[in-house]
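Researcher: Go.
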Amino acid sequence: MGLFDWSSVSPMGVLTTAADIAVVATMVYFLLRSLKGTQAVSLLNGLLILYAANLLAGLLRLEALAWLLKQVTTMAIVGIPVVFQPEIRRALDQLGRGKIFAASLRGPGLEETERVLREVARAAEAMSRDFIGALIVIERATGTGEITESGVKLDALVSAELLVNVFSPHTPLHDGAVVIRGNRILAAACVLPLSEAHSSGTKLGTRHRAALGMSERTDAVMVVVSEETGGISLASEGQLHRDLGHNEMRERLRVLFGLDSRERKFWRPRGRSRGRAK
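Model: Structure:
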């Protein structure tokens, strides 16, 4: 006689269990899918690290540390609804509209990414010649849900002509930032957080401080055009590189988005933004 009595297993029970597992797996899949590309992913990683530290402290019988970690984990779990409020609201909204299954996981291909960067570069060069101030946010892995919601939704295909038109003076959406995800302009007139690390000492204009602030909170790439000087700057990974030539700007964008296999030579530490406000 085996260790398990298979005669007690009914076909209906197997089907019910399989359906139960499939439903739960589907729910988890779409939950992770809705969180993908948002800042909530980083917070979930933090919770997983806390949970692993709890287990390790218990195994090593570190009672004081285990107690402390348990309190921190409890507070973190209680705060989940508050921290994930934008993601939860967005998921419930999609569920109510029947769009939870409609979103595509696929991002733009390499050719489309290259086209988007080319259009952004063309727009920046045109605005630089005409001294039109601009601030463009190009998403990478981390989403910008809260930032996007602060602006006016567009959901339009990226083109240089549309970007120039948005930032043209005296138009309704020229003040603020444009957010690009994939090959779409999600929103315009978005409000970005200002950099705190560069709020004093270094003299930077509001657009440059906003670009730095965004680069300190996400992995997005910001393209800034100075209204006063026409200079073009890029912000990424907490660094701001200013007054770039057109060719250098295009090369940096290609490197940052994985279209150029060369080393990330452009982003070796050269000191953080220095100079006059522009």
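Model: The mean pLDDT is 79.
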